[in-house]
UniProtKB/TrEMBL annotation:
The active site is at 204 (schiff-base intermediate with substrate), 257 (schiff-base intermediate with substrate). Pathway: Porphyrin-containing compound metabolism; protoporphyrin-IX biosynthesis; coproporphyrinogen-III from 5-aminolevulinate: step 1/4. This is Delta-aminolevulinic acid dehydratase. Homooctamer. One of its GO terms (cellular component) is cytosol. 5-aminolevulinate 1 binds at residues 214, 226. Zn(2+) binds at residues 125, 127, 135. Keywords: Heme biosynthesis, Lyase, Magnesium, Metal-binding, Porphyrin biosynthesis, Zinc. Mg(2+) binds at residue 242. Its EC number is 4.2.1.24. The lineage of its organism: Archaea, Thermoproteota, Thermoprotei, Thermoproteales, Thermoproteaceae.
Length: 338
C-alpha cells in the first residue's frame, strides 16, 4: 500500500532557501570551470564582436592580469586557442606547431607566472592555422576534396609535443580524426611527456552553435563544411563508440561538445563510463545567445547562465568549458539564485 498526500508533501523540502540548499542534488563551483581564452601574438586586446565580453588577448601583461583575475575568483583552469594573422597561415597549419608560436609562448608565460596554481589545457587542431580553414591536410581525389586523416594526426602529434614542451598540463585534440588520441599519446610518451594528459574532444558534433567561435578564431572553412569528420547531430549512441575508442587509445578526460543541446549525450556517456572524467563544452553559440537575449531584456543572464551550467553538471559533466566562467564565478560568490 502506497502512502500519498497528505502524508507525503514534497513541498516541505522547498519551503525555504536554506532547506533547498540542504537537499540540493547538484552543486556548482568555480573549480568546475575551464575558461577558454583566445590568444594572439601581440598588440592590444581586441573585443570579439560575435561574443560580447570576450577578447583576443596578446601574449603579455594583459593576459597574465586577466588570468590572475580568474584565479582570484576560483577559476584555476584555462584552455588556450591561438589566433594568427592570415599571412602566417598555410595549407599545413604550421603556425600551430611552431615552438615559438602564439600558443607555446602563452603557455610558457602562464606557467612561469602562475606555476601549479593554474592548470593549462591547449587545444590541438589546425583550423586556426590553415589557409583553408579545415582541421587538417586537404587532398583531392577523383575531383573531390577530403581531409587526409592519417597525415593530419601526425601533425596533431607534433603540435601536442610542442605544447607539452612549452609546459601544458593537458593537450586537447579537437579535430575528430580517427586515431588522433593514440598518435598523440605515442608521441608524448616517446618524448618523455608521460605525465602530460589528454582531454579528448571525443564526441564533437558538426554543430551550428560554433559560429561565434569561428569569427573569434578566424577559423571558418573557406569551402565545404566539417560534416565528414565531426559527428552527425542526429546520433547519440555513436558518441558512446567514439568515447570508447578514445578511452582505449589513452584519453584521460573525454568531452561532449556542444553541451546544452546534447545533455542527453552527456548523460548517456556518463552512464556508460561512470569512471571516466567527463567534460562538456558550453560553446560560443550557447554563450552568445544568452548574451543577446539578456541585452534585450528577455532573460535574466545571471539566473539563466547558472541554470544552464547546473544542468550541464547535473547531466554528468564534471568539468565545464564555458566563456561565462568568470561571470558565473562572481555570481556563485553572491549565492545560487534558485
Amino acid at each position: 500500500m502506497h502512502v500519498r498526500f497528505p502524508q507525503h508533501r514534497p513541498r516541505r523540502l522547498r519551503a525555504s532557501k536554506l532547506i533547498r540548499d540542504a537537499v540540493a542534488e547538484t552543486s556548482l563551483d568555480p573549480s568546475d570551470f575551464i575558461y577558454p581564452i583566445f590568444v594572439k601574438p601581440s598588440g592590444e586586446k581586441e573585443q570579439i564582436p560575435s561574443m560580447p565580453g570576450q577578447y583576443r588577448w596578446p601574449v603579455g601583461d594583459e593576459l597574465t592580469r586577466h588570468v590572475e583575475e580568474a584565479l582570484a575568483l576560483g577559476v584555476n583552469k584555462v584552455i588556450l586557442f591561438g589566433v594568427v594573422p592570415d599571412e602566417l597561415k598555410d595549407s599545413a597549419g604550421s603556425p600551430g606547431y611552431d615552438p615559438h608560436g602564439v600558443v607555446p609562448n602563452a603557455i610558457r608565460l602562464l606557467k612561469q607566472t602562475f606555476g601549479d596554481k593554474l592548470l593549462v589545457f591547449a587545444d590541438v587542431c589546425l583550423c586556426e592555422y590553415t589557409d583553408h580553414g579545415h582541421c587538417g591536410i586537404v587532398r583531392e581525389r577523383r575531383g573531390r576534396w577530403y581531409v587526409d586523416n592519417d597525415e593530419t594526426i601526425k601533425l596533431y602529434a607534433k603540435e601536442a609535443v610542442t605544447y607539452a614542451d612549452a609546459g601544458a598540463d593537458f593537450v586537447a585534440p579537437s579535430g575528430m580524426m580517427d586515431g588522433q588520441v593514440a598518435e598523440i599519446r605515442k608521441a608524448l610518451d616517446a618524448h618523455g611527456f608521460h605525465d602530460v594528459g589528454i582531454m579528448a574532444y571525443s564526441a564533437k558534433y558538426a554543430s551550428a552553435f560554433y559560429g561565434p567561435f569561428r569569427v573569434a578564431a578566424a577559423s571558418a572553412p573557406k569551402f565545404g563544411d566539417r560534416r565528414t569528420y565531426q559527428m552527425d547531430p542526429r546520433n547519440a549512441y555513436e558518441a558512446v563508440k567514439e568515447v570508447m575508442l578514445d578511452l582505449e587509445e589513452g584519453a584521460d578526460i573525454v568531452m561532449v561538445k556542444p553541451a546544452l543541446a546534447y545533455l542527453d549525450v552527456i548523460r548517456l556517456v556518463k552512464t556508460h563510463y561512470p569512471w571516466a572524467p567527463l567534460a562538456a563544452y558550453n560553446v560560443s553559440g550557447e554563450y552568445s545567445m544568452v548574451k543577446a537575449a539578456a541585452s534585450l531584456g528577455y532573460v535574466d543572464e545571471r539566473i539563466v547562465t547558472l541554470e544552464i551550467l547546473t544542468a550541464i553538471k547535473r547531466a554528468g559533466a564534471q568539468l565545464i568549458l564555458t566563456y561565462h566562467a568568470l561571470e558565473a564565478a562572481r555570481w556563485l560568490k553572491e549565492g545560487v539564485p534558485f
